[in-house]
Amino acid sequence: MHDFTEAISYATAHEVAWPRDPHAEPARWGVHHDDPPPFNRLRGPVHARGGVSGVIRVGGREVAAWGEPDRADLTFSVAKTYLALLAGLALARGLIASADETVASRLPGIGFDDPHNRAITWAHLLEQVSEWQGTCFGMPDQVEHHRKVAHDPKPPTGRKGEARALQPPGSYWEYNDVRINQLSLALLHLFCRPLPDVFQEAVLGPIGGGADWRWVGYDDAWVEIDGRRMQSVPGGTHWGGGVSISARDQARIGRLLLSDGLHEGRQLLPADWVRRMREPCSIAPFYGWLTWLNREGQLFADASRASSFMIGAGGHYVWMEPEHDAVVVVRWLDSARAPGFVSRVTRALRAA
User: Fold this and answer.
1) What is the pLDDT of residues 231-281, one digit of tens each?
2) Among 52, 111, 228, 331, which residue is least crowded by beta carbons within 10 Å?
3) Cα 120 from chain centre
4) What is the pLDDT of residue 53?
5) Which CATH number fits domain 5-90+190-351: 3.40.710.10, 3.40.50.2300, 3.20.20.70, 3.40.1050.10?
6) Other Cβ atoms within 10 Å of 61 Cβ, number
7) Which InterPro entries match (predicted)?
8) Closest to 238 in 3D by CA, of 46, 24, 17
9) Phi, psi (5° rounding) for residue 34?
10) Measured between alpha carbons, how far is 186 from 34 in angstroms, rounded to an integer?
């Protein structure tokens, strides 16, 4: 029998310092404050959050839960991985031929046609090595130049938002939310349907989730496709909007990934695609397809080298741990305390 008491107590005692109501102390909430003006503002809705919450599943069964595991809270860049799942679904439905297909060859006229962007493939976007150049719903890619995130091992190369020379697609890794939003827009054009509807029908609904969840875009992120007005959704909550979802639903999605897209005998996502999401990028081995990897133990020394993570600002972690057939979700944890939490969960998993 697993005993996660110590890990849960540790997490609960180390809540992220962000205020629970983003409107009460806006200067202390979010990540947009680091952007150069006029882009250092929210462009989509945000809402109040709960406290530290989490869920642990082992062997597909929930063995622990704390906080408000059914509360739909903003989850920031965990949503990036959901875009990778939708891209896999697009492959399964024949909407793309392969991840190595160029976006321009499939979707002309949406920002991939110039000589630089024409070489960008779906895999480049999924690995964050696309070097896409342009403006997506008023946000230039330059806003995210020189962005430094916690688990990126390379040192800063300049001031955030300061222009840098672009490299050929596939040759430079950079965490860039504008490019992620451009990927989301491309997926919208592939499906010709709002991505939240596709995700609910093809992923969340079949695995038993979707209660109270939502995925919303920026106030001005609307396009018309086939005569229908649709909102394009971001792959996070950097500038507001994004996915609000419960810890239990996050654990369900993590389980689907751990099972290579198989749920109760149904192959909801291509198994090869899900496995490929966990393969390291050649120039950024800590990253797969919109998924963080632990191949050298650089993320968390006490997690297995086969483990992978969905990570979002504000202390959101979904940890897929194949060594113990476990999925661990923790939310609103002080990120500086994440290694301590992972260590305590690992000890509990090994002790059982």
Assistant:
1) 999 999 999 999 999 999 999 999 999 999 999 999 999 999 999 999 999
2) 228
3) 20
4) 98
5) 3.40.710.10
6) 9
7) Beta-lactam-related, Beta-lactam/transpept-like, Diverse_Enzym_Activities
8) 46
9) -80, -5
10) 27
